[in-house]
Amino acid sequence: MGAIRKSLPVKALFFLGALQPLCAAASSGINVALTASFDSSPYLVELLETAAEENATAYFPILDRIAEGYFEQSKTSQDLYIRFLDLLQNDGHITDPETLSSFQFALSVHSAAPRIEAHYQYYNTSVEPKSEKIAGSNAWIQFHGKQYSTPQMDEAQDASEKSWVPELPFDRVLGDLSNPLQAILYADITTPNFAKFHKSSSQRARVGEISYRVRHKTSTLGPRSPLVVSGYGVELALKRTDYIVIDDRPAEQAAEKGAQKPLQGELHDEDEITDLKPLSASELRLLGSNAASFVLNSEQPLDTLLKLSQDFPKHSSSISSHNASAEFLAEHKSNREQLLPAGYNVIWINGVQVNARDVDAFSLLAHLRRERKLINGIRKLGFSGSEAINLLSHSAITESHIDDEPQRYDFRDEIEGGNVIIWLNDVEKDKRYQDWPTSIAALLQRGYPGQLPSVRRDIHNAIVPTDFSNGKDVAMVVDTIQSLIKRTFPIRWGLVPATNSPGAIAQAKVVCHLHQNYGLSAVMVYLQASANHNKLSYPDKATFEATIKNHSLRKDHELLQLEEVLDSDQAEPRLAGAGQYLARLASNGANPPLFFNGVPIIRNDDWLQSVAQRASGDHRSLQKDVFEDLFNEDSWLPSKFLVQAALKRNPLIIPENEKEIKFVDLSKLDTLDADVFQTLPRFSVAHVADVEQWAYLIVVADFDSSAGLRLFFQAMEFRQSHESAEVVFIHSSRAPVETTGFASRLYYAAQQERPLEYAAAEPVPDDQEGHSQAYWDAVSPLIASFNLKPGESYVVINGRLVGPIAEDQEFDKDDYAALLAYEMRKRIGPATKASQLLGLTENIQSPFVAAKLSSLISTSTISDVPEGIFEAAPSVRTDIFNRWNSSHTVITKGDFDNAIIQVVASIDPASEVAQRWIPILKVLSELNGVHLRLYLNPKNTLEELPVKRFYRYVLESKPTFDDNGSLRNLRAKFNGVPADALLNLGMDVPPSWLVAPRECVQDLDNIKLSSLKDQGDIEAIYELENILIEGHSRDVTNGAPPRGAELVLGTQKNPHFADTIIMANLGYFQFKANPGFFKIQLKAGRSREIFKIDSAGTKGYGPQTGDDTTEIALMSFQGTTLFPRLSKKPGQETEDVLADPIDLASDIAATGAQLANKVLSKVGLSGVDAGKAISKGSKWWSSIRSSTGLTTDTESGGQADINIFSVASGHLYERMLNIMMLSVMKHTKHTVKFWFIEQFLSPSFKSFLPTMAAEYGFEYEMVTYKWPHWLRGQKEKQREIWGYKILFLDVLFPLDLDKVIFVDADQIVRTDMYELVTHDLKGAPYGFTPMCDSRTEMEGFRFWKQGYWKNFLRGLPYHISALYVVDLKRFRQIAAGDRLRQQYHQLSADPASLSNLDQDLPNNMQMQLPIHSLPQEWLWCETWCSDESLKDAKTIDLCNNPETKEPKLDRARRQVPEWTVYDDEVAALARRAKAGDASQSGTEQSTASGDEGTTTRIKDEL
C-alpha cells in the first residue's frame, strides 16, 4: 500500500533522471516525453484493472485479497508489481505465459488508465455526496437510493438517487444485476476504509442478497502526477533540401569529401557525425537491397534493423558501400513473383492482414487478445496452436470468403403459371435493337470498362416489384428505367404489380388493362400523367380517359370505362399470380428489392450503381463461358444464372447484406450443467453418419405456442431427409411451462430417452413438483447469454443465428433445408474441407464439436462496418506467405511450435513505414507465445533518398523500475544526430490522439544542435490533450448522412460539455474529450425539431440488442467510434436541418451539382443527391446559435467585432505573428479576438500570449480539429498547415460566429480590419484578394497566367490565400466545407496537384464556390505589386520573391518601417514580463521575444 505515487511537477518527472533512455547516452541530444492531460492512478488500481482486462473473473477475488491486506507490506511500485504477479499465478487468475505476457504489455502501455480515469470523471461529474462527511471520505456506499458512510449502513444520508442504478460500461458486478437491491461502493481501494466496506458487501452479494459493484474515486490523501504515456513515435525530419537532393557528381568524386566511415559489420548509435553526405545516383539505386542484405548478414539482425531504420539518413552513406549478396537478390526476386511486389509493407497476424491504421500498441494489444481468445477456443477442441492457425488461414476458408457469387433466385414466372411479369422491352424482338448482332461471339468484342456489348440476345433480366400507387416506384419506372430502355442498354426490364393496399390493387388493375388492351405506351403515358397530376394514390378518371382517347384499342378487345375496369375481375388471375410471385421471393413488403439476373438488389439511392456492378460481373463470367465453348447459338443464356438459383427466398436465411448475419457463442452451451446439456431434447446423429455433412441446429421457441409447434414439426420433417443434422430444442417462454403442454412433453420424452417423434402423442406424467419448469428454468440463462428474447423463435445452425422468426412468418422444412445448404456452402463445408486437407478430422468427434469449430472460424474476421468508412485491409485470412523462401530474406524470432500468435511481416527497410513498424514488431516478438517472421522486401531500385527523418518509437513489452523501485517512465531519446542538420520535430501518435507541445524552450520547428553550444540536451514535453470520440452518423429514414445536424456531448453536471456538427462527408463528426461517461443528444433547435436519435451506435454500425442508448463511455486510448442512427420525426421527412422557411440564397445551389455528384461518388457518397442537397443547404441557417464543441474555453454570448484566424509554426513565424497582432490592435478601436490552431504553436508562444492579450486588450482562443482518417492526409508539415487553413472552416469555429478573417502571420496591417468585417461579399462564401499584376518585371513568374491555370481560369482571377474573409453562415449554408473536402480528396490523389494547397483549392473551385474578389489594396506584396501601389495598401504581406529569394526578416526591416518598431515593442514587453515573473517566482519563464535574433536569423529562408 505504500507504493502510491508521490506528486511531482511535470518537469521533475523527466529532468530529475526518472526516465529510461531508449538508446545509449551521448554528449548531446534531444529528449521527448508525452504526458496525458489527466493524472496517473495508484499503481495498485492500475494493476487490478489491467488484470481484469485479461480475466474479468479475477476482479473480485483480487479485491478480496486487497481487503485482506495482501499488499500492505509492499512499499514501492516494484514490490507491488512482483507481489501482484505472484498473486495472479498462485491464485490461478492468469496461469499461462501468453496471457501473463499480455498483462505485462498492457501494464507497460497503461491500457487500463483511461478506464480508471472514466471512473474518476463519472464520480466528479455525476455523483453528488449528500454530506461533508461522505464527500471527505475515502469510501462510502450507495444502497437502495441512500448514501452511507459506514459499512453497517446505519447512518443513511438523505439522497435523491434512484434505487435502481443502471450498469455503466466500466462497471464490474458481483451478483445478479437484476437484483433490485444494489450496493455501489465509491472508494479508493488503497485505503484501509475500503476493506471494511468490501468485506461486508461482497459477502452479501455472494449469498444473493444484493448486487455489488466498486467504482473508483480519487484519493483524498494528496495530489497526483500526470500520467506519462507510451505507444507513440517521434520524428526529426530533415528540413534543408541539400540533404535530400541527389548529388550529381560521380560516386568516386563524392566519396572524396568523406563523411561517414565504411561499416565494419555493425551499427553504433553513439557514432557522431557533423553533417550528412549526399548520395550519388548510383549509390541510391540499390540502397534498399544493400540495406536488407547488410541487416541479414549481421549477428543480431533484428537489432541491427532497428538501429539502421531509426537513423537511416545517418547510415545511408555507409550502407551504400555494402553490396547485397547474390543469395539475397535471387531469393528476393523469387519471392516477389508470388503475391507481393517489391517495396510493399504488410503485417499479418495469424493470417489476418492488419490495416496500416491499426499498427499501434493499443490496437495491436486488442487484436492479440482477440486472437488469443480465438486460438484458445480452438485449442480447447483438441487442436494445437499451430493447427488452429493453419485451419483459420487455410485456402479452403479463404476461397469461401472471397467467393463473391451471391445467392440467385428463379425470377421466371412459370411457377405461377406465367403472365405475371409486365415486360417493358424485348431485346430479341424490339425494333430498336434490330441492328445489333445476334451471334454469341459478339459477347467477346472489346469495349470500354463497365460497358455491356450490344448483342440482340436475351441475357440480362431485371425484375422490379412495383406499387403503381407509390410515387417513388412510378418515378423509377417512367423516369429511370424508361430512360435506360430508350438509351438501348442491353437489359430486359420487367415489372411485377405489388398489391399491398386498395389503391395499389386498383392502379394495378388499370395498368394490366391498359397493357393488355392498348399496349405498353399507354401504360407509360398513364403513369406519367398520374404522377404529374399527383393522382397516383387511386385511379383518376380524367387521366384514364385522356390516355385511352389518345391510344388505339387493340383488335378484338372491349372498350371499358374506368368503373368497369375496377369492377372487372379480368386482371384477378394476373394479380393473384403476382401476389404468389412476390410472396415466393419475399418481396411483398415495404421497399422490396429488385432482382437482376436473379440477384436481389437493395432499392436504395445506389441501386443503379449496384445493377451496373452486377451486370459487369455477370458479363465477365458469361464471356468466360462463351470463350470456353460452354454455350452454342441455340443456348438460352440466362440459364447460366439459374443453375443454382433457389425457387424460394427467405431473407432470414440469406439476407441482402451478408454483414447482417449474426452469430452466437456455442461455447456457452458448455456452461450448462452437464446433465442438463446431455438431456436437451434432440434428434441425434447416428455415428455412421457422414462427418462431412454434420450440422448442429438449435431450435429456440415457445413450444407451448402454435408458432413453436410449427417450428418443431417442420424441423422434424426436415430431419427425416437430413439425418446428418443434429437438432436440439430449447423451450423459451415468458409464461410458466404448461404442465400438459408440448414443452413438458419434450422434457419427459428426453428424460426417458424416448423418440421425440412421439412426444405429442404420449401422456404427460403428473408434474406437481414442477420438474419440467425447473428444467427449462435451468436452461433460461443460456437464452440470456445468447442475447435472445424469451418467447421469440430462433434457429441456430453451427453458431449462426436466424431470427427472431415472427409468429406469422412461415419457416418450413424447405427453409430448414435451404438454411443448411447455404451454410454448408458458405461456412460449414469449407471448415470441414480444411480439416480434412490438414488431416485434423480425428479431433472432430461429434456434430457439436464440428459446430463449435466452424462457428469459431466464421466469427474470426467479422466486421459490420460498411465499406468506404475505413480503409479496411482484407478481412479474410491467408497463408500464401508460406510459399516464400525463407533462407536469405527473413528474420525469425520466437518458438514456432508453441506459438499461438504467428506474426508475418513484409518490410521495406528503406522506408518510413519501417521506422514505425520495426520497433513495434520487436516488442511483439518479446511477448510469450508470439513467433515473428520478418521478410525484408526492399524496392528493386531507388531514385531519391527514401527516408528523410530520424525516428524513435516509445514502447516496451513490460514495465521497468529504477533503483528506488519506482516505475520508470519512457521517453524518446535522440543521440548522435548530425549537429549541422536543420530538423523539425514531429509527433507520430495513434489516430485518436490530439497532442500539442507543453514545455520546451527551444524552437522545435527548427532544431540545429550545433547552435546550442553548451546548453545541453533539448528537453521537450508534449501533452496528450484529448482523445477523440468520433463517429459516422446516418439518417435511417433515407440512408443519407444527416448533414448539418448538431450533436451535444454532456455529463450530468454539465449537459452541454461540447457540441459539433455532422458533415455530409460520410456523416462524420468528432468531439474532443478525455476518458469519462457522457450522453450524446441532439442540440435544441432545428436539429431536435427534425431528428431523433434512435441509438448512439456504440456497438457497431448495424442495430444490436441493447444498443438503444445514447450513453457512451470513453475508456480506451484507442478512442471511441460511434455509428449514431438518427431518424426524422413524423411530418419532418422532407425537411432539411439547414433550411429555413425563407430561402435567401439559391443562386449557387444548382451550380456545380453535376460535378459535386461525381466527386461524391469518388469518396463513397454516391447516394447523395448533390443538386438537391446543395439547394437545400443554401437556405439561411438561423437556428444554430452555439459553438461546435471543437474549441476550448468558449463562453456563450456575443462574439468580438473583429475575429482573426491565423496559424504559425516555429519561433520565427510566431515572432511575426506577434507583430501582426500588434499591427491589428494599433489600427482599431473595435473588440478583437484571435483564433489559433493550437497544435502548431510552441509552448513559449502560448505562455507569452496571455501577456500580449492583457497588454493590448484582445481576446484569444485555441482551436483544433483532428484531420479525419478518411480524408487523404499530408506528410509535410507545411502542407498540413495549408490544409487546416481551408479544409475545416465549417467545423473549427463556434457556430454563432458570423465572419472570420484569415491573416497570414507574416503580414502587417495598416487599416481597421472592421472594414473587412463589414465588406459585402455579394453572396459569396468567402472573399480573397486577386494576385497583383502591377509589377511588370515579374511577369515570367506569374504561373497563373501560364499552362494549366491559364486554360482553367479562362479570364477569372487567381487569388492569394494570405488574406481572406469567410462568411461562415453562408459557407455552411451551401455546404462549402463538404465540397472543398470532396474536391481536395479527389485532386490530392495526384501528388503533383495542389502545389499551393490553401490557394489552389479555392481557386480550382471558383466555378462551384464563387470567390468574391476583394479590392486590390487589401493585400500588397512587393513581389507582385508595384511600388506606386504601396501607398494604398491596407495590409502588407512578406510573400517570397522567387527571383531574389530575400530572407523575410531582411525584407520586413527594409520594406516596412513600422515592423522594427513593433518588433522592439513586443520584445520590450517580453522582457518586462520575464522580469516580473522572475521577481515573483524566482524562476525563468520562456517567452517569444526579440532576444532570439541571433538564433532565428539562420531560419530566414523558411
UniProtKB/TrEMBL annotation:
Gene Ontology terms for molecular function: UDP-glucose:glycoprotein glucosyltransferase activity; unfolded protein binding
Organism encoding this protein: Lophium mytilinum
Cofactor: Ca(2+)
Lineage: Eukaryota, Fungi, Dikarya, Ascomycota, Pezizomycotina
Pfam families registered for this protein in UniProt: Glyco_transf_24, Thioredoxin_12, Thioredoxin_13, Thioredoxin_14, Thioredoxin_15, UDP-g_GGTase
Protein name: UDP-glucose:glycoprotein glucosyltransferase
GO biological process, one term: ERAD pathway
Record's GO cellular component terms: endoplasmic reticulum lumen
Segments of skewed composition (Polar residues): 1479-1496
Segments forming domain UDP-glucose:glycoprotein glucosyltransferase thioredoxin-like: 665-858
Leader peptide range in chain numbering: 1-24
InterPro entries linked: Glyco_transf_24, Nucleotide-diphossugar_trans, UDP-g_GGtrans, UGGT_TRXL_1, UGGT_TRXL_2, UGGT_TRXL_3, UGGT_TRXL_4
Family: Belongs to the glycosyltransferase 8 family.
Gene3D superfamilies: Spore Coat Polysaccharide Biosynthesis Protein SpsA, Chain A
